[in-house]
Amino acid sequence: MSIVYLNGTYMPIEDAHVSPLDRGFLFGDGIYEVIPSYGGKMVGFGPHIDRMIEGLGALEIELNWSHDQWRDLCQELINRNPKSQIGLYLHVTRGADIKRHHPYPKGVSPTVFAMPTDIPPAPIPERDKVDGYKVTTMQDERWKRCNIKSISLLGNVMHYQKGYSQGSGEVLLFNDKNELTECGACNAYIVKNGTMITPILDHQILPGITRLIALGVLQSDGSIAVEERTVTREEVFDADEIWISSSSKELAPVTHIDGQLVGDGKPGPVWEKAAKLYSAGKFNY
Predict the structure, then answer these.
(1) Of 34, 72, 177, 280, which sits 20 to 30 A from 139 (CA to CA)?
(2) 248 Cβ partners below 8 Å, 6+ apart?
(3) How many helices (H) and strands (E) does the chain have?
(4) pTM (2 decimals)?
């Protein structure tokens, strides 16, 4: 039985309840984060909380928690849910008003919820031990503030489900200019002639923490060239390698796109080198 946190109290998940008038339930009015932890050590705690604070500010949700308050909550969840690896799901909504109406209400206390989630063991960064993902491409039809990690994920869910129903483990999304944005639940990358290339951050793309860590690790090491720039659909299909990343997947290779092989259909050597560097440096952020 999982132990969760809700508005100041730790309890079994079966005992956690929120009001049907909570604006998270009614409007998807909230922000969330998922912080992976392995052996009690969190990955990217500081950047995750920085992003949450920035998202809360963008939505004008007033919750003046410090990093230390969030760290204490996360550590307590780890202590109360002893597993070798768990994701720490943090969820803040604007709270519950006395009626349903669109404008931000005054004098409402945010709802703060946190729970452990199952995540797989840390991926093994070796080419012969990883199968790679199959992805499907489609036009990005989500809203224009994808840089905010909102709990309003219906657009992502619909894209992901369409790919899932076609046997894919992710989707690669392109805007109306046929430029790569991201995935249903991941950031995206290509490799060409040994250089890793990823779309530059803007309103179309969530600033992923795994992306942040990976770029930092690769730029610090210097053995793999890194570019942040526009990536066209043509470049994606001509890429030597394609990767995706998320907190639970870390850096993951793509081996099939729209039923076609990426490269030779196996995880590539640049991915293997980058994944090993990421694995060695991920706890430093």
Answers:
(1) 34
(2) 34, 36, 87, 119, 120
(3) 7, 15
(4) 0.95
DSSP 92-108: EE--B-SS--SSPPSS-
Rounded Cα distance between 183 and 171, Å, is 5
Whole-angstrom distance between the N-terminal and C-terminal Cα of the chain? 31
Question: And the tokens for 234?
Answer: 């043509």
Going along the chain from its start, the domains and CATH numbers come out as 3-118 (3.30.470.10), 127-284 (3.20.10.10)
Name the helix (H) or strand (E) containing 72: helix 67-80
Q: List per-residue pLDDT tens for the chain, 285 residues long.
A: 899 999 999 999 999 999 999 999 999 999 999 999 999 999 999 999 999 999 999 999 999 999 999 999 999 999 999 999 999 999 999 999 999 999 999 999 999 999 999 999 988 899 999 999 999 999 999 999 999 999 999 999 999 999 999 999 999 999 999 999 999 999 999 999 999 999 999 999 999 999 999 999 999 999 999 999 999 999 999 999 999 999 999 999 999 999 999 999 999 999 999 999 999 999 999
Tokens, residue 244: 């995706």
Q: Alpha-carbon Rg of the chain, whole angstroms?
A: 19
- Cα 68 to its chain centre, rounded Å, is 22
